[in-house]
Amino acid sequence: MKLTPGKQKGLQAVSDSRGVIAAAAMDQRGSLKSAIAKEKGIDKNAVSPQMLEEFKSAVSRVLTPHASAILLDPEYGLPAARQRAKTSGLLLAYENSGYDNTRPGRLPDLLDIWSARRLVAAGADCIKILMYYTPFDPPAVNEIKHAWVERIGEECVGVDVPFFLELVGYEEGGDEKGIGFARKKPDVVTHSIEEFSKPQYGVDVLKLEVPVNMAFVAGTKSCKGESAYTREEAKEQFRRAAAAAKKPFIYLSAGVSNDVFAETLDLAAESGVNFSGVLCGRATWKDAIPVYAKQGAKALEDWLQDEGVKNIENVNDRLKAAKPWFSFYGATSAAALS
């Protein structure tokens, strides 16, 4: 395995001294706007760009001293990018917030006035896209998505920047939080990993959901009622999904609480899978949204300095089990891949 100089440099920039990706995520746009509006009791359209920039900047300022990198969006996140710690790398999102809801298949789209080249010029060490995906969608839907990812992969090769692909599973017309989807989720995640590990996509790091819904893992604190899998079955699904990966992979927090994400990472560690870190967003800062909405920027900053730092350190503690991204290729350092 050889890595080009730009890809090697970008991956090192977003990793810690061990080669583990301990990154914060703050690229939410539509969902953040809706959450602030709900807590303020105002219409979503009344949430100004300045509010989003203010929230993102506070998160970046306070949390990046504890993170190897931060994921931001170029729409509202560039002021926050300038306020991150010098030791923290920068990933920039390339996709539009949300998806096309006029057609079936949750089709993605890219930001109109951005390109991989422009994102790198804006300071990106790595580029990330999010895509809703299930291998069980009709081929007519998935062929569109496959070609879309191939194009972005080629664009990232062209400017020699690492490409992070975030996959979020779903079921058209289904309830992704219910036990029915929980039973299907291991197959959705594992088959998605198999697909996008293929070389034609040019993906450098897979940003993944865990292959189980912790709310349905028997015997966990997250499970409050019926279960879809025993603890041992859940660990086997972690191993099965990891075995499908031909690229380094990291876990996303998928909007769960800090306690649930910590328990998730404990289970990943027990499973012995070779994950290379996290990109953790709402599990760190989502409880700050009502604080900001009701009390303003100073209260937000105070909350982040206390609870936010505790949350990110709680996740960081779980990364002792993570493996350096370069070890995925059998290397002992990033330089060995050049």
Task: Please outline what is shown here.
This protein has 338 residues and is of the alpha/beta class.
Explain what you see.
The chain contains 12 helices and 8 strands. The protein is globular, with a radius of gyration of 19 Å. Helix 3 (49-63) packs across helix 12. It is α/β, with parallel strands linked by helices. The chain starts with a helix and ends in a 20-residue tail after the last helix. Strands 1-2-3-4-5-6-7-8 form an 8-stranded parallel barrel, surrounded by 5 helices. The model has no long low-confidence stretch (mean pLDDT 96). It has helices at residues 5-13, 30-40, 49-63, 78-81, 116-121, 139-158, 179-196, 231-244, 258-271, 282-285, 289-295, 297-318, and strands at 21-25, 69-72, 89-93, 126-132, 163-168, 205-208, 249-252, 277-280. It has a single domain (5-333), classed as TIM Barrel.
